[in-house]
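Hey, weird one. I pasted the Alkane 1-monooxygenase sequence into the form twice and got a warning about non-standard characters only the second time. First submission, copied straight from the form history:
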Amino acid sequence: MSTREEIRRPARALPFWMSLGMIPIAVLGAVAGGWTVVLLPVYGWVMVTVLDGVLGLNEDQPDTQTPEADLFWYRLITLIWFPVQFVTIYAMIWWVTHTDHLSTLETVVLFFGVGVISGTIGLVYAHELMHQKNRLERWMADLLLGTVLYSHFRSEHLLVHHLWVGTPRDAVTARYNEGFHRYFVRVLRDCPRSAWKAERMKLARAGRTVWHRSNPFWHYAALQGGCLLLAFLIGGWAGLGLFAFQAFVAVWQLELTNYVEHYGLTREYRGEGRYEHVLPRHSWNATQKASNWLLINLQRHSDHHYKPDRRFPLLQTYSEDEAPQLPFGYPAMTAMAMIPPLWRRRMNPRVRAWRRRYYPQVEDWKPYNKGLNPMPRGSV
């Protein structure tokens, strides 16, 4: 276990700042063009996966009683990321719409890389920030979500996913044998209306209608509209299109991650709309060192769902006896998920082994596979 003295040292937090390495790579691609525009995806997927293989696993267990004041250098990277990402996105839009040395293909690949920044880093940081009680951090989360046109994710994640993960009510729990591409269409269709429904129910419990100013969807619309308007003012229709493209790439990466995190893992149905409590075994765990640095310990997802308010430096990891383990970190696993036959060949045996270990009493898995079990009590 790491002592509090070790955790508070800036040097211990420094690896979690590796996300900043993406910014000069983006600038290089914008200025030099050519083959350099592919460096951002290479950094985010290939290099980090190679580092995982070289550096191995991190099974350190931080002291969960560490006071928040000792986590300053960890929190700082998440707090400064919105201005970094904001400037990067809009500076890139200005640059490519006011210069002519990049071809159309180079521009598209460059903005795919910008989407890697706003998805791989921005949305992961937004996820960390939205779970905090501090108003500034929650605002930073909303601003980051606005830059990828996915503001409803906050409502869906906090009011639906964490309550109903592993049940039919949670759209982002990937079903057994469900390929990513089919899953992606499903969550794009279902999650916005699921988030709206959750906020409507929350307002109704307070005696308010959806038209009340406290409905966060008005706030979401204003932020997203402002981001779109600024892209248009800076880069015209081309700038607006490039902004929307990087947002799509970011959302695609987020949902790839969501797909990996809970694929095939379901909570046992116990009758009358009741499901077992969420446990570490209902999320895939990964302890690869470099990818956890880049993704601020998101891969310690079993503990995040078990203790959602725990800040990322203090998340615990679990052994194979306590939680199912991914064979690789998220960069490699999300790449694998894009090829459904390869994904099924690697992951379906792991899901079946998980079922035998934890739920030998369940004889019929078809309702779980198809999301046909009854909705959880209180979720509709």
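That's the output from the first submission. The warning seems to come from a hidden character in my clipboard, not from the data itself. The first helix runs from residue 4 to 7.
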